[in-house]
Design brief:
This protein is of the alpha+beta class and 189 residues long. The chain contains two helices and ten strands; from the N terminus they run αββββββαββββ. It has two domains: 4-41, no CATH class; 61-187, Jelly Rolls, CATH 2.60.120.380.
Length: 189
């Protein structure tokens, strides 16, 4: 197999094999009468439910524990997530790849208006209102914040653009170093 393009053919072939193997394992979809949907990798036996994290090791109620790949001039809108009365939002994340991204927290109304702009306009825009949190996160280190915010629904936006936040992706041609973001959103201190 030729190694032209910096091993691109080998990487594409390997990636295709991995994807094919994962898809071959299958997944199970469980639809509840109330409209809730659960997904499980592989076969989930009848009457069972897929396993999902409920509590982190430190006793926090985990809302989301996931990974996202955010390329240059892209954003990932995570949510909306609900913060009950008397609770706090705890965010933990680590990025690899890009030198830095911004973490922006906005109320649902702001997040949905911003998401609508993002999906319908050719250029990225700043948030339509002042965010609850706007902080840069740098590659390598684990970043943690706990926010005391009013109860309600919120979006956590992972931003790799120059139009929002304090950081900007590198502007070198053909240098799309995506940010691979591992994150946990939880309730509690």
């Amino acid at each position: 197999m030729p190694f032209g393009g910096g091993g691109q053919n080998v990487a594409n072939s390997l990636g295709a094999q991995i994807l094919k193997g994962e898809i071959a394992k299958g997944f199970t979809v469980i639809r509840a009468a109330n409209g809730d949907v659960e997904f499980g990798l592989g076969v989930v036996e009848k009457g069972s439910h897929p396993t999902s994290p409920k509590l982190a090791a430190n006793g926090k109620n985990v809302l989301l524990n996931d990974r996202s790949e955010v390329h240059q001039n892209q954003r990932d809108f995570v949510g909306p997530i609900e913060i009950p009365d008397g609770d706090k939002l705890s965010i933990t994340l680590q990025i690899d790849g890009a030198p830095a991204i911004d973490v922006i927290v906005v109320p649902r109304s702001t997040g949905e208006a911003w998401l609508q702009q993002y999906t319908t306009q050719a250029v990225t825009t700043p948030p339509p209102a002042i965010p609850m949190l706007d902080e840069p996160v740098y590659s390598g280190a684990i970043w943690r914040r706990t926010l005391s915010i009013p109860p309600g629904l919120y979006y956590v936006v992972l931003d790799n653009t120059s139009t929002a936040g304090r950081t900007a992706p590198t502007g070198f041609a053909k240098d799309d170093r995506a940010a691979l973001v591992s994150y946990t959103l939880a309730l509690g201190d």
